Amino acid sequence: MASEGPRILTVPGGTSPGAAAMAFASLHKLVELHEAREAHASGDAADAPSPSAPHTVVVLRPPASVAHQSLRQAAESPSSPFPELPDDQAADPHLLDGVDLVVPTSGSSTGTPHLVGLSVEAMLASARATHDVLGGPGNWILALPAHHIAGAQVLFRAAVSGTDPFIVDMTGGFSPARLLPAIAGATAEADAPGYLSLVPVQLRACLEAGGDVVAALTRLSAVLVGGSSVDRALVEAARERGIPVVTTYGMTETCGGCVYDALPLPGVSVRSVDVDGQQRLAVAGAVLLTRYLDGPAPFIDEGGVRWLLTGDLGLITPARTVEVLGRADDVIVSGGLSIAPAPVRQAVLSTPGVADAWILGLPDPKWESVVAAAVVPDPALGVSAAPTGSAPSPALRALSASIRDHVGRELGRAQSPRVVVALERLPLLDSGKTNPRAVLEAVRARLGTAAAWQR
Q: Parallel, antiparallel, or unpaired for β 354-364 and 337-339?
């Protein structure tokens, strides 16, 4: 007899082919179960499972936090799959109502991930809207960790398409050359689109690899790029070389990307909401999470419509496109002026000699905070990122002056960085996104050394 409680499958994600295959099998099972329930409800399949069959919930976790197991091993109590939940929350009999998939957020802003409960209906709405915009179901390539929403959604879209994903082995890190066999397989059928999802640092590596890698990327129908603030110059450079880049904005709570090339997906609405003088983005539609398992979600219910109040600043342009200005909690208040980091970062990135950059605020007794730029200089400039000595080198002084002048012309002098710190590279989370907390630590460690300039 079936248990009354849900059947909970905890699946290790990660970047290895084995982990990705297990994650795909579990997500494919969710699609199969949903289709069987739909068929049974419509009477189209007499042999379809009864709706009273056990409710299956898939939990994707970082591989280091999950013991190796098979999909046959399932828990029937949330206390084991969710050890971080207090006993009373884990014992709530309604905890997993309307939840088929649990994916943790990266925790990049707070350091503490949320457990995001998603329904299979929300994932299907996202996958189908994506296919509608891109040109139909096709062959998907996984080059992202399977336990983050971007990677999980690649696998889910493949399951919805009725195809097997082409998995890129990233166990030893991302290598553009490893994309080549997967792209060859995904584009082998002339009538089947080939799709790939990357984070910006991967796209940059592909452009730097050039040659066969760039040529292969041009054969794809779409290369989705998101996961962090995307450098406009990087996107333009890729498109100029024939790569069909589609920029995306979204989060775990929206089943991944919900805005493509600044336009909401079909069935998704986005607006800006004034919250304490800040314009925050809010999202509505079938792609929204069911709930956080570990606390209340920031929902706004208006006129029978449920909106998710995001932590992102943004606005809706007269052309009805969505412009994302960065995280609300990343706003830098300097001399009474609220400065959004995203426009500053774009201006810094467009400065000659800057290969990559991140913007953050540092405490200051006079200004409250000052704008700081962590930059990865072009190697040709000879700027050292080594935290030695006590005075910035002439090369760093020159680059810093150039950055301040360029940002001043673009945005006004008040938004120009007053601190510039050279790094060899921006530290990343395992999702491929920039790790803001690690950037802050690296910047603090270099203040007062030859790798830092301060006005």
A: unpaired
